[in-house]
Amino acid sequence: MNICMIVHNNVTRDGRVMREANTLQRAGHSVTVLGLQDADAASPVEYLDSGVRILRVFWLANAYRSLIASALFRVLPVFAVIAALLFGIALGLRRLFAAQGPVARFGHDAFAAVMNVAHWRWLDMVWGALVLVLIAALIYTAWRVIKAYLTLLSTGAQQSAREEDTVRRYAEALMKEGALDDADFPSVKSRIPGWIPDWLLAVTLEPLEWFGANTTRFTLLRYRSREMTEVAVKLKPDIVHCHDCLTLPTGVQVKKKLGIPLVYDAHEIYEAAASRMVGITDYYARIHKKYLRYVDGFIAVNDSAALYYRHAYPEVPKAVVIRNAIQLSPSEPYDGRLHDAADLPSEQRILLYQGGFSEGRGLPILVRSASMLPPGWSLVMMGWGPLSGSLKQIAAQAILRSGREEDQIKIRFIPPAPQKELKSWTQGATLGIIPYEGKMLNHWIATPNKLWEYPSAGVPLIVQPFPEMRRVVTTYHCGWTLPETLTASGIADLVASLSDEQIAQARLGCMRFIEADNWTARYEKRLLELYAGLTAKAGSHA
User: Fold this and answer.
1) FRET pair for 417, CA 20 to 30 Å: which of 184, 194, 316, 513?
2) Residue ranges in 313-387 assigned as alpha helix (H)
């Protein structure tokens, strides 16, 4: 089968996508992964050792050309409203100053002078300033109204957080009761009306970019989807496989144009994710409601996510659960690269966090815990992301407040390691931590790549007491759970409480976990069985 996978990243760092593509390629299929070009992966074409082809779509230039071409259509209504307001102000002042009486005549003369710049006097300038202040007040009022509208549209962070917290607590109660099969699982719903077409959503929200709403994403997502659809259709695949929510509209268009099966690989619960950008969680829910009915094969990242989708979207096929388990591979002796990159002595013990620096992952609390770690321990933050600057600032302030010279080596920030070399880097850690916050349902049920990457390198886990991660730690005795409330002192106290013997026993648990729950042992077969079931449907197209 000719398979086209679609993902909205550069593919290079996405281990899940790479594992699935390699498995299908080695099974005899021909796999092309459509990704996006960026600064870290500029090559438009790349071939993996397995034969998988990666095509990176250069979409930005065409998207921005389209954006500029359609800007007039979006901008004109906004300028028309502003012009109408200014004309109304001028007309109202004109009528006021046209009245009889010394004050009105004085105002009339001043207003006329303001309109005639060549004859401005100081009094005229005062009147001009008053007019500008009035205009500014009206614009500010309009801006506040727009902000209120956007808050209602996207529900606002507080309301949304309360709803998602309710969902999380409800899920926790169900899991404790063991009543998963018959439960009426609640879902986070979109407040963007379904009858609004995608193009109108972009047109109406786009001008609000000027007010800090950052709504250009809706139009750019539409243009990006169009570019990727054109490339995917030219490949004439037998099956299209979409990774993540934002690729789903593209996959549906490809499915409709070619009449082929569509596989949707949901890596998260997107409408319950940590991102709090205006309208974006509503947009995720809107995509699911609109497009999930076209899906022929559905993949969920774990049992909890599968449960959520089954109850929130009954029209989606039964999920095939494929976790983020990694390929089992032999371990080489540690060569000291993690300590060298962090500029730490070889005997220093490392508490490692590897991955993205983004909201909702408990990283500010983790960074604050560094100065509280026991002697001989350092926190190494290996990754990248939007919080990088603020996390480094928190670390610097903590060191400055402590005033202890020895705290200088308590925390280090280093760049992310290449995916192929990640295990060799991770081996240098003593413990690996996943401090995700539980405010969002998506994090509460998370099973991130780190849950396998740490144990694969023989590094025991410190995780939050959330159901999926806690189950791994308690079943295989490969780590420890943090207290219910995430605090810097709680992290440091747990690290300080661990003896060498406990850590050694947890390392053995890591081996048991990885041997029992790896890609080859469990999940490779599930993926191939899913595709075998779709072969007949795809064969009619071929």
Assistant:
1) 513
2) 337-342, 363-369
What the block records as the tokens of 510 is 């890591």
- Report d(CA 285, CA 297) in Å as an integer: 19
Look at residue 185 and give its three-state secondary structure: coil
CA distance 171 to 186: 9
Helix axis angle, 467-476 to 303-312, nearest 10°: 150
Is residue 224 within 8 Å of residue 198, measured between CB atoms?
A: no
Closest CA to 293 of 232, 257, 251: 251
The pTM assigned to this predicted structure is 0.75
Residue 340 structure tokens: 């060298």
Give alpha helix (H) positions in 359-499.
363-369, 388-402, 422-426, 441-444, 450-456, 467-476, 488-497
For residues 335 and 332, give the distance between their C-alpha atoms in angstroms, rounded to a whole number: 8
pLDDT (tens place) for every residue of the chain, 542 residues total: 999 999 988 888 788 999 999 999 999 999 999 998 877 776 889 999 999 999 998 876 666 666 666 655 555 665 666 667 666 666 665 555 555 555 455 555 555 555 554 444 555 556 666 767 777 777 766 665 565 545 544 444 444 444 445 455 545 554 554 444 444 444 556 656 666 676 666 555 554 444 444 444 566 777 788 889 999 999 999 999 999 999 999 999 999 999 999 999 999 988 876 555 555 677 788 889 889 999 999 999 999 889 888 888 888 999 999 999 998 888 889 999 999 999 999 999 999 999 999 888 999 999 999 999 999 999 999 998 889 999 999 999 887 787 676 777 899 999 999 888 999 999 999 999 999 987 777 888 899 999 999 999 999 999 999 889 999 999 999 999 999 899 999 999 999 999 999 999 999 999 999 999 999 999 999 999 999 999 876 555 45
The encoded tokens of residue 454 equal 């740490």
Other Cβ atoms within 10 Å of 330 Cβ, number = 5
DSSP one-letter code for 66: H
| Whole-angstrom distance, CA of residue 268 vs CA of residue 472 | 19
Query: Up-side HSE of residue 470: CA atoms within 13 Å toward CB?
Result: 15
CA distance 59 to 290: 24
What DSSP string runs through 465-533?
S-HHHHHHHHHHT-EEEPPSS--HHHHHHHHHH--HHHHHHHHHHHHHHHHHS-IIIIIHHHHHHHHHH
Cβ-proximal residues to 212 (8 Å cutoff; 6+ apart), any chain: none
